[in-house]
Every structure is written in C-alpha cells, then in structure tokens.
TrEMBL record:
It comes from the Eukaryota. GO terms for biological process: signal transduction. The chain crosses the membrane at residues 1033-1055. It comes from Amphibalanus amphitrite (Striped barnacle). This is Toll-like receptor 6. SMART domains: LRR_BAC, LRR_SD22, LRR_TYP, TIR.
Length: 1426
C-alpha cells in the first residue's frame, strides 16, 4: 500500500474538521498530527488498480499514481475527481492498509461485499460507493454482518433516501460512525435522519454526519447516545443552535464541530449545557456579532475556532471563564478593534492566530499579550500594522513562531525581539522594509529561519547579523539588492539562501566563499553576466543551484568542478553559446536545464553519465552529437531538445535508457531506420511539428521482448496499476505525404502489437495523398487504399514477358500520365487529367482500377479502347469535349461502377453506348447537349443507382419507361421538356409516382414553346399578325400596334373568363392526386400547374444525453441558431412533443427535420444508449433519417462500437475538439431559404398535389412574437411521406471531380384540384404557403397570399372552413396553363392590385393584399403552425 502526504480526510469540510480528526484519531490513525499534513493511505489509487476502467483524472489528483511525493492534495478534490469519472469496477475491491482495517469500493451497499483475510479481527471499515447515483432505500448493511469485532465504520458517497433504525441494526455495537454523502456538491436533496435511527447504538462515542446537505435535525435524534463525546455536523445548512439543542445531545460532549454551516448568531445559553466541551469549531459561518457570556460554563474549553466569519470586534469578557484555553483562532474576519485585556489571565494559551484582519498598531501593545508565558505560535500576518513598540513581545519568552508578514512595517526598532530567546522562525515578508537597523535581531540566538522577501531592501548593514550564527534558511528574494550583502559572511551555518529577483550583478564581496555549508543557492532573475571559477570555489556542499533568468554569456570551464555534490542546475533563459567542459565532471548531477539560450553544439560527451533529466529546448542546436557512441552507457531518461534546428536523428541520437524523448518543433526531415530499436524503456517520443514528409516503418520499430515476442513498456503509473502499455508517439504537425510506404501508420495505429508505438495524436495527423496532393486529409479519414506510390513501369515476379511487346502482366504508365498503386497492387490508378490529350491512351495497364481522363480535349471515345481492362471500376472523362461515343468503345469494362461523362458535348445516344456495363452503378450525363436518347440506352444497366440528366436539351425522353430496379437517384431539371398534353401528363404522372427518386423534382418544368393555348377544345389560337385582302402587308408600325392590341384583348378576355376555363371535368377513374392527368369530358381536358410540396419544418433534429442538456442549450444551440444563416433546430428535450412513448416523439422530430444531429458523448454511450426505450426509438428513426451528422463531444470515434457504429456507417462525423467545429456542422446542415409559391411564368413545375389538412395551416401570431414551433407541430406520419421523396446519401456520390451539386427544395403546400364544373364542398381548393424563414406577425398565409378569399371563412377552432357559397369554386393557386387573373374589381376573385415577387425559377408569385375583414382572425392554435 503506497502512502503520500495529503490533507487528512477531515479537510473535506474546509479545514474545520481538524479537531474531529484529532479526537477521533482511531478512525484515521495518522490524520491528526502536527499542522494537519501527515502520511495517510491513498485507497482510491489502490482500488483503481483492480478495475478495468482507469481513472486518469484520479491518478493526476492522487499523489500515489505518478508523483508519490507531491505535497498536499485535498481529500475533497480526490473524491470529486473519482466521482466525475464515475468509476465502475467489475467487482467490489477491498484493501487492507493496516491490520484490522479494511477499505472497500463497492457499487452499492445492497449488493456489495466486504472481503477480508481475517473477518473476525476487522475493527475498522471504510465503504465507498462508486455508483453515486444509486439510492439506498431499504439498506440494512447486511454486508457487515460477518464482522463481529467491528468498532468503526465510515460510509462515503452513498446516497440514502433516509437513514433509518433498520439501516444500522447490524452495526449497533459501533463506537465510531461517519456518514458523508457530499450531497451538497452533487444533489439538491438532503440526507434525512429518522428520529430513532441511532436508538440502538448505545455505545457510540463519535458521530460524523458532515457534508450531507442537512437543513435541520430531528428532535430527540441524539438523546439515546449517552456515551457520545465527538459530534461533527459541519458542511451542512444549520442556521440556528436550537436545532442542535433539540436533538437531546448529552452533556458529556467533548468535541463539537459546527463549521461550514449557516449560523448567523449564537446566544448566551446555546453552549451552557456542554460543560465538558474541550473543542468548539465555528469557522466559516456567518457570525457578525458575539455577545458577552456566550462561552459561560465552558471552563474546560481548550480550542476555540471562530475564524472565517464576519466579526468586526470581540466581546471584552468573552474568554473570562475559559482559563484552560490553549488555542484561539480568529483569522479571516474583519476585526479592527481588540479590547484590552481580552487575552489576559489565560495561562495555558499556546496558539493565537489573528491573521487576515484589519488590526492596526494601536491595538497591538505590550498589554495585549501580557502574561502569556506559554505562548508558542503568534500569527499577526495580513493586518495593517505600520509600526511596533519595542516592548510589545516582552512577556513572550516561550514564543517559537512569529509571523508579521503582509503588513505595512517600514522599520524594525532595535531590541524588538530581545526577550524572544526561543524564537526559531521569524517571517517579515511582504512589508515595506527599506533598511534593517543594526541589532534588530539581538537576542534571537536560536533563530533558524528568517524571511525578508518582498520588501524594499537595497542593502543590509554589516552588523545586522552580528552574533546570529544559527540562521540556516534565509529568504531575501524580490528586494532591490545590487549585490549579495557582505553581512551574510557571518552566517556560517547558512544552508539555504534565496536572493532571486534582485539586481545582483556579481558577488563582489566573495560572500559565497564564506558559506561552506550552503546547500541551496537561488540567484534567479538577477543581472549576472559571468560565472567565474572563484564564484563557487568553496561551495562543496551545494546540491541545488538556480542561475536562471540572468544575462549570463559565459561560464568559465571548470566553474562547477568543485561542487561535486550538485544534483540540480538551472541555467535556462540566459545567453550561453557553449556548455563544453561545464558539467561532465559532476558525478551527482541528475537534473540540468540549459533551455532558452543560444547553444549551437551539443554532444552526449558534454554531460555526466548519471544525468537523468536534460532540458535543452529553445536553442540553436543543429545536430545531436554522439562522437564516442555512448548511447548505451549514459543513463539519460528524459531529453527535451524541442525548438531547435535538428534535421536528422538515428539510433545514436537517442540514448538506450530514454523514457521521454521530445524533439518537437525542429526541422526534422529524416528518422533513420532502427532509431528506436534498442530503446526498451521508451514511454513517449514527441516528433510533432517537424518537416517529416515520410516516416518509414522500421524507423519507429521498438525492440522485441525475448520472452513474449513483444515489447512492454512500464510507466510509473503502470507499476502502481500492475499493467503494461504501449509506447506512445506524437506526430501531428508534419507535412506527411501518405504514400504506400506510410500505410503502416494506419494499420499499426489500430493494432495491439506493442512492437510499434501507438500514435497518440492520430486525430490531428494530416496527410497529403498522392491522388490529391493539394489537399490535407486527416489520417483518421483515410483508408489503406489511399496510401499510394507512383510508378512508371512495374513487372511482377511471376511475369516472364516484360521484355516483349504487348505483355499483359507488365504495368507501364501511359505517356504523359501519372500512375499510382497501393502496397498490394489492389489499387492501380491512372491519372491523365488535364494533360491536353486528344485520345485516351491504349497503353492503360490491364490491372488498372481507376482512370481519370477529365479536363482534356477528347472528341470521340474510340472503339475497343478499353478491351481487356476488366478491373477498372472508376472512369472519369468529364469536361473533355466528348461529342461521340463509338460503338463498343466501352466494351470490356465489365467491373465499371462509376462513369462520369458530364460537361461534354454529347447530343445523341443511339442505344448501344453502354452495352456490357452490367456493374455500372453511377452514370453522370448532366451538362451536355443531349437531345435524343434511345429508349434502350439504359435498359441493360441492371445495377444502375444514379443517373443524372439535368442541364441538357431533352424534350421527350420517356423517363417513365426506365426499368432499372435499383435506380434511386435521378436528376431531370433544366431541360426543355415538352408541355404538350400527352408527354406533360406522362411526365407529371411519373413525378407523382416516383418523385421520391428525382432529386430535383421541384424544379422540373416544361417549356412553353410547343404548348397549345387550349388543350382539347380544338380551337386554334387567334392570329397575331394579320394581312389585308390584296395580300399586301401593312406597315411595320401598324402591324406591331395591331399585334399588341390583339394580344392585350386576348389576355383580358382570358383573364376575365378564367373561372369558366378552369372548369374541366375529371373522369372518375383518374386519380385526383396526379397533377397533369388528362380528364375527357366533352372533348375538353386540362393540365394543372401546381406548386411544390412543403419542405421540412426544421433544418436538424438534435438528440443527445440528458446529462449533456446544459452543453446543448448553452453552447450548441446558440452557436447554430444565432449564426448567419441561422439553423432551425428541434432539440429532443426542448421541442419534442409530450407523448407517452418516446419513439413517437423521436419519429415526429425526425420526420419534421431535414437532417438528424446526434451528439455522442460518454454520457450518451454509458447511459442513454443502454436504455431500451431510447435505443429502440432511435434505431428506427436513424434508419429513416435523410441524413445524419454525428458530433463527438468528449469521446473519440473509436468509442462508438457495435450496433451504433453500424447504424452510423454513412454518417458525417465532426469532433468538438476539431478546429472550427461549428462551421463544419453548418456546412453539413446548410440552411434552406424558402420562396413564395404560385410560380406562373415561362416554365411550369410538374408535381402532383395532395390535400392539405387542417393542421397544415399557418399560425397567426400577435405582433412582436416570433414562431417557436415544437416537434409536435411537425408533419404527422401520414404527411411525412406525402412527397414520397427518397434521397441518396451524399456520401455515396463521387467527390472532387466536378461532382454534382444537390438542388434546393422550396417550402410549399398545395391541395388537390377538382376541375369539374360542379365543384362539391369537399373538393374546394385551400392553398397556402409556409415561409419558414419569415416571422408571421399577421395571418399573411391566409390573407395576403389569397388563402382566405371573400367567400371563405374560419371554422370554430380557427380552421379554414368551406365558404358559405359553394357555387363559387375558388381557384387561387392551382391554375390550368391557359388561366389568367381578372382585372375587373367587380369580379369575385379580385382582391385588389397584384404584387409580383420573382421566384427562384424565374417565375412570378401572385401576391395579394390582405382583406381588412379578416384582420380579426388571429387566434389560430399554435399546433396549426407547420
């Protein structure tokens, strides 16, 4: 069991428990010694050793892990670190630090067990609950029944709903009980103690119930404890002493700790019953006034602590009856007045602490401490003393420690300390002393420690230290000394001298030569320029020397040779250029820092062989020298040579004993093979921020262990844990070219083979890949096939025809191209991009897997170009001016999966172009000049999934006849689709039936060039140009005027009688949901032009762990919702609907959002993902989500495993620790801007319509309010799939080379349109547009946009109801192609002047002003806003 110097467990309550620890020393045997810092066990570190989960935070906090000699570590910090990391051990862990004592870490008290080698001999047990969330309701501590001799029990971090009598019935014979839940730090609930919980514990002597967030105590709680002597209720919220008196605590109480509560006052009779009280702790409360006589009856009181309160003065008679008092602590108040005689007649007083108050010299006089003959410690620091009378300490002959620091003293009168013959520590730091009077230390014959730092001393008189030879430690740093005072020559026993942060330039008086016993010398932060041989000539005992932060340019050779006991030297931050001959003869030197100098040459021969730690960073070293090849002789363990100019390292550059090798921020370009092959102790090598473009695998290979076949590296923490770990390597910040020789970096980083170091910063390593050298790719985003090497010619070992023409197994790169391969030759890329080629080379290797020929001038793809290339999977010929694909030109590409032919000059496909491409999955033909495509062109592409035809000149290609079974991604927009009735109807029907596969269905429009004015009436359109009877043509001006007049007349007539024109009849068999379907009635037919369907309400649905709510609400949401452009987020725990089943809420949110943002943290993986309801609802929702983005918060991607990893295989990943993570998230979730509906212009959108439900209507908000929709207002299950749209995961599309941009989608909603002349009420048209980016201050969607006409009204609940006059069928938004709007104000459909808004497609939106009669209809329900 390791031990370390830590604060005792009593320090949990802020230091006030020291008395309790002293009185109950049997609970913690070594916690009450001295000043409160004693060796104590570190049970947490020991318990971690048996767990599968390591607590790195606890290791750092616990001195037992890496630093066994670290100074004070507060117990509370240690427990907090453990709790934050939620230690979950596979089994209960128990340790026996001493005979009869057991310390156990259990998950909970209900299922835990206490394992001891000798249960019958166990007298003390400490139980720590690792699962702090577990609430113990009916616990009976049955795990302690087999310990008959148990006397002391301590419960830590165990949460109780109530501590009952039954809980303690198995431990009724205890003498000491401590229950600390620390609920005030983690929970808002308080620990409740039943009134009879201690009734069976008649032998209890010490009770600790501190740190339990208690506001009150049950009356009679302690009345059945007749032997109770020690009571600790600190760290709670008790505000009145009456709460303690009512518990019935007996008069035998000796120690009472009420510190860290909320006490505001104490009465004169509050402690009168405790006549046997010896220690009273009232620190860290809110006491502002104390009354005379409040300590009446406490004649046995020995220690009183009222520190850290708000007291301004003390009652004059407060201590009259406490004659046995030994310690008074009133520090940390605001006391300005000290009543005369307050401390009089206290013959036993040994310690007074009045520091941190506002006492002036007026109250510190001779009579203040008169008669205190036994006083040992007096602390007056942190007051406002500016002077002291010479006789103030006259009666303190026993005083040993005096602290006058941090006052305003300017002079010290002679003879002030004459009577302090036993004083050994005097602290005068932080005053305003500018000079010391001769003889002011007279009488201090045993003074060993003197602190004069942080004053204004410029010199010291030679007689100041006369007859004072006992001083061993002198601190004079941060003064204004220009030289080492000559008066120090008298201090022949001086062992430690600190004169740092002065203006000393030299030891002009030779003072140091007169101090033969000096062991520590600190001259840092001065103005020394030279260190001569005489400087340290007689300092043979010096072991630590600090000369840092000076201006030293030269150190004489041999200046340190006589200081043979030197163990640590600091010369950093000077101006040294050479260290030759300075340290090689120092056999005891272990620690050397010469960093931040100007050293240009370094060799291992310059340092002693026993040196363990060397810091030479921030110099100008170009080479790590090892002229004598002593890397196996020296014992150096840590070398920091970062920020130098080293360009090459090899095996001789790194000592064999090295553990930490830091060579970051150099100019390293080469690491020779075998550099680390003999470094068996290596723990970490830092090669980051260098110029490494390549790092061979054998350069970082570690030695093989002869016994196990792999290297094992043990760190200091590993010894404590009893395990071994990988050596670690840091490589970030290097310009790596990840070729085929670097593939080990990816493979070895994922393996457990300890012959290769683990790349610790792999998430920050960036690579330049050969096929994209201008872009940096994170190492974690690469795959083995990305690690390529170029080649000109390659012949496999089994190939015997390489010296002959037309050798199939020869790999020869075509002229003018660049070829790459991976280590296994499974990837073979031929890159001929932008090489100004006019034909595709016929010398492409037979084993090529990808060919890039884009950006050339290839007019024709010749026949049989790719014969025999059966392994090509990717072919890019885009942007190469291709006009023709000859017959059988692609023959032989049986494995081709991706073919890019976009941005060429192709005009016609005759049906044979793609024969034989049975494996083709993606075909890109957009941005060509295609006019004609034979119907059989794509029929034999059985595996086709992606087909892009947008931005061509197609007018009548029967896209509805495509029979490819796997086709899920089609683009058709920006063509010249015919508006003729038959093809337009067929195309509209195709979009209605399979529109989910057409990614740009919302922007597919027909061209009006061949559209008849009236489909089906048989009447030709009126002439636009007329001729006279003689056949002569009218003058041009007259003809133009006539044409304009006729056109205007026709427009007026059509607009005036548009209601009659839109009364077409639909046959019963025609599905009403198919826009553009033909209905024959009397020879008439009509094609409906409808607006696109509604887009999703939210940009992203955010799901996360409940424990990460604060991060999401205060960090994530503001970053994305307040950005420009802002994203609309649906947060699971803020906006989700309140449903009985979580799956319904998640489903609604996913369907109402375009993408899903999943915040994965350790909380998410350990809690939410382990819950069945949460996991089941998300599994189904994430599978149907149209795109998932993962934000890693505090975890690596490797932490995502199992089913979740499979589910997120195609997701986009962003780490919170990345550079600009929010920008990356916004790029993955772009904000979509909606536009107004009802385009009516040159092109007509071809989409089917569906009936709008009542809850699809927008909400009318009062002025000044902005819509804050919740997920419950999103589309229902039926609505969510109304469009039937199925997106292809963008990750499956090729990237890089002219990849296609995905189109935007508007936010519009339409209703089906009934074209019959007699329109029923249920077939009337109700149309509106939702503009998510616009705040609806008034019912714009219902009034301004024409949704509520003069003949329409609101229903009882604010729903849009049928008009009172059903004979007038409304036709506001769904119009036949020939329909116009009337300009007659008397027309029923007229609403005033029409405002036109240009749409995204160049059309014009018809915008109507609101009707004043409808302004009062503003009470639409929030649930109607979609």
């Amino acid at each position: 069991m390791l031990s370390c110097s830590v604060a005792p467990p009593a320090a949990v309550s802020g230091g006030s428990d020291r008395s309790f620890a002293g009185a109950v020393s049997q609970l913690w045997p070594t916690a009450g010694e001295g000043a409160g810092h004693a060796p104590c066990p570190c049970p947490l570190c020991e318990s971690v050793s048996a767990c599968d989960v390591r607590l790195r935070a606890a290791e750092a906090a616990c001195c037992c892990a890496m630093r066994p000699r670290v100074a004070v570590v507060r117990w509370r910090a240690l427990l907090a670190a453990a709790a934050v990391m939620t230690l979950r051990c596979a089994a209960d862990v128990c340790e026996e630090p001493a005979e009869g004592e057991v310390v156990c870490s259990v998950a909970d008290l209900d299922s835990g067990s206490v394992n001891a080698s000798r249960p019958a001999a166990v007298r003390r047990v400490e139980l720590r609950c690792s699962d702090r969330a577990h609430l113990h309701d009916a616990t009976e501590l049955a795990l302690l029944r087999h310990l008959p001799a148990l006397e002391s029990l301590a419960l830590r971090d165990c949460q109780f709903s109530e501590l009952r009598r039954s809980t303690l019935r198995h431990v009724a014979g205890l003498r000491e009980l401590s229950v600390r839940t620390f609920q005030s730090e983690w929970l808002s609930d308080e620990l409740k103690l039943a009134a009879d919980c201690f009734e069976d514990m008649q032998e209890l002597e010490a009770l600790d119930i501190s740190g339990n967030n208690m506001w009150s105590l049950q009356p009679g709680l302690l009345q059945k404890l007749p032997l109770l002597k020690v009571l600790n209720v600190s760290g709670n919220h008790l505000q009145q002493m009456s709460a303690l008196r009512e518990t019935g605590v007996g008069s035998g109480l000796q120690v009472l700790d009420l510190s860290n509560n909320g006490l505001t006052e104490v009465g004169t009779s509050d402690f009168r019953e405790f006549v046997n009280l010896k220690e009273l702790w009232l620190s860290s409360n809110s006491l502002s006034v104390l009354q005379d006589g409040w300590l009446t009856g406490l004649s046995r009181l020995e220690r009183l602590d009222i520190s850290q309160n708000q007291l301004a003065t003390l009652p004059a008679l407060m201590l009259n009856e406490t004659k046995a008092l030994k310690a008074v602590m009133v520090q940390g108040n605001n006391i300005t007045v000290l009543p005369p005689g307050l401390l009089a007649d206290l013959p036993q007083l040994q310690t007074i602490n009045m520091s941190g108050n506002s006492l002036s010299a007026q109250w510190i006089r001779k009579d203040t401490f008169a008669g205190l003959l036994r006083l040992i410690v007096l602390d007056l620091s942190g007051n406002v003393l500016d002077s002291l009378s010479p006789d103030v300490f006259e009666d303190l002959s026993s005083l040993q420690v005096l602290d006058l620091s941090n006052n305003q003293l300017e002079t010290m009168p002679a003879g002030l300390f004459t009577s302090l013959s036993n004083l050994h520590t005097l602290t005068l730091s932080g005053n305003s002393l500018s000079r010391l009077e001769p003889g002011f230390l007279a009488g201090l014959h045993v003074l060993s420690r003197l602190s004069l730092d942080n004053n204004r001393l410029t010199s010291v008189d030679d007689d100041v230290f006369a007859n004072i030879t006992s001083i061993q430690n002198l601190r004079m740093q941060k003064n204004e000394l220009t030289s080492i005072p000559s008066s120090l020559r008298r201090l022949t026993n001086l062992q430690e001298l600190n004169v740092a942060e002065n203006n000393i330039s030299d030891d002009t008086h030779g003072v140091l030569q007169a101090l033969p016993h000096l062991g520590l010398l600190n001259l840092a932060g001065n103005k020394l320029r030279n260190v001569s041989v005489e400087f340290l000539a007689n300092l043979t005992d010096v072991s630590m020397l600090d000369l840092s932060r000076n201006e030293i340019e030269n150190v004489d050779s041999g200046a340190f040779d006589k200081a043979t006991n030197l163990m640590a030297v600091r010369l950093d931050a000077n101006k040294l250029r050479n260290i030759n001959g300075l340290f090689a003869k120092l056999p005891s030197l272990l620690w050397l820092n010469v960093s931040d100098n100007q050293i240009e040459f370094f060799d291992y021969a310059l340092i002693p062989g026993e040196l363990r730690w060397l810091d030479i960073h921030k110099n100008q070293v170009r080479e790590i020298g090892n002229f004598y090849n002593i890397e196996s002789v020296i014992r150096l363990e840590t070398l920091d040579i970062s920020h130098n100019q080293v360009s090459l390292i090899g095996s001789s550059s790194v000592p064999d004993s090295i553990k930490y090798f830091i060579i970051a921020s150099n100019q390293l370009t080469t690491v020779e093979p075998g550099t680390f092959e003999n470094k068996r102790q290596l723990i970490r090598a830092d090669l980051s921020s260098n110029q490494l473009s390549e790092l061979a695998q054998d350069a970082v290979t570690l030695p093989r262990d002869d016994d196990e076949g792999s290297v094992t590296v043990n760190t200091a923490s590993d010894h404590a844990e009893g395990s071994a770990k990988h050596a670690e390597l840091l490589l970030a910040g290097n310009p790596f070219v990840c070729n085929c020789h670097m593939d080990w970096l990816l493979a070895k980083n994922a393996t457990s083979n300890k012959r290769y170091p683990k790349v610790l910063d792999g998430d920050r390593v960036m690579c330049r890949l050969l096929h994209s050298p201008n872009h940096l790719t994170p190492l974690q985003n690469t795959k083995p096939s990305d690690f390529l090497c170029d080649y000109e010619r390659h012949c496999f070992a089994l190939c015997h025809c390489c010296n002959y023409v037309a050798c199939d197994c020869e790999m020869k790169c075509p002229s003018g191209c660049t070829c790459y391969h991976d280590p296994t030759w499974n990837t073979n890329i031929v890159d001929c991009s932008r090489k100004e080629q006019v034909v595709i080379s016929r010398e492409i290797p037979m084993d090529a897997t990808a060919v890039f020929a884009d950006g050339n001038n290839i007019r024709s793809l010749d026949s049989h170009t790719f014969i025999g290339r059966k392994r090509i999977k990717v072919l890019h010929v885009n942007g190469s001016n291709v006009e023709e694909i000859q017959n059988r030109s692609l023959n032989g590409l049986s494995a081709l999966q991706v073919l890019r032919l976009e941005s060429n000059q192709l005009t016609t496909f005759r049906g044979f172009e793609f024969d034989g491409l049975q494996s083709l999955r993606e075909l890109y033909l957009h941005s060509n000049r295609l006019r004609v495509i034979h119907q059989s062109t794509f029929s034999r592409l059985a595996a086709l999934e992606v087909l892009t035809l947008h931005d061509n000149q197609l007018a009548s290609f029967p896209v509805w006849q495509l029979v490819n079974p796997y086709l899920v991604h089609i683009s058709l927009a920006d063509n010249q689709w015919s508006c003729s009735c038959v093809p337009a109807a067929r195309l509209a029907a195709f979009l209605a039936e399979r529109g989910d596969k057409v990614i740009d269905a919302d922007t597919v429009r027909c061209s009006e060039g061949d559209r008849p004015d009236l489909c089906g009436d048989g009447d030709p359109p009126p002439p636009v140009v007329q001729h006279d009877g003689s056949g002569g043509v009218l003058p041009a001006a007259i003809v133009s005027a006539a044409v304009l007049a006729v056109a205007a007349l026709v427009a007026v007539l059509v607009f005036r009688f548009r209601a009659r024109l839109c009364r077409g009849k639909v046959p019963p068999a025609a599905p009403p949901s198919v826009a553009g379907s033909r209905g024959f009635a009397g020879g008439h037919y009509s094609v409906a032009v409808v607006t696109p369907e509604v887009e999703k309400l939210y940009d992203a649905f955010v799901t996360y762990s409940a424990q990460d709510t604060r991060f999401v609400n205060e960090v994530l949401a503001p970053e994305l919702e307040q950005a420009t452009p802002a994203l609309r987020l649906c947060l699971l725990r803020r906006d989700a609907p309140n449903t009985s089943y979580l799956g319904d809420a998640v489903h609604h949110c996913v369907q109402a959002s375009r993408k899903t943002l999943l915040v994965i943290s350790r909380n998410f993986l350990d809690n939410e993902w382990c819950r069945f309801d949460f996991k089941a609802s998300h599994l189904d929702a994430l599978r149907t989500s149209r795109g998932t983005v993962v934000l890693l918060y505090g975890v690596d991607r490797s932490a995502v495993e199992g089913e979740l990893k499979t589910l997120l295989k195609g997701a986009a990943w962003v780490s919170f620790g990345d550079l600009e993570p929010w920008r990356k998230v916004r790029d993955l979730i772009p904000s979509r801007q909606a536009f107004l509906p009802f385009s009516y212009g040159k092109q007509t959108p071809l989409r089917s319509s569906h009936r709008l439900r009542a809850n699809d209507l927008p909400m009318a908000l009062p002025d000044g309010d902005s819509p804050s929709p919740t997920c419950s207002t999103g589309m229902s299950d039926g609505e969510s799939d109304a469009s039937g749209r199925l997106r292809l995961d963008p990750s499956r599309l090729p990237t890089g080379r002219d990849s296609m941009q995905q189109s935007d989608h508007p936010y519009d909603v339409i209703d089906e349109y009934g074209a019959a002349s007699g329109v029923r009420a249920d077939s009337e048209l109700y149309c509106h547009a939702v503009e998510p980016g616009t705040q609806m201050q008034r019912p714009l969607g219902l009034e301004r946009l024409g949704h509520v006409g003069p003949g329409e009204r609101f229903g009882p609940q604010g729903h849009l109801g049928p008009p009172p006059y059903p004979s007038q069928p409304p036709c506001h938004s769904v119009e036949p192609l020939h329909r116009h709007y009337p300009s007659d104000p008397s027309h029923p459909q007229h609403h005033g002047p029409q405002a036109q808004f240009p749409s995204r497609a160049g059309a014009v939106h018809q915008h109507y002003p609101s009707d004043p009669s409808h302004h009062q209809n503003r009470s639409l329900s929030h649930s109607l806003w979609v």
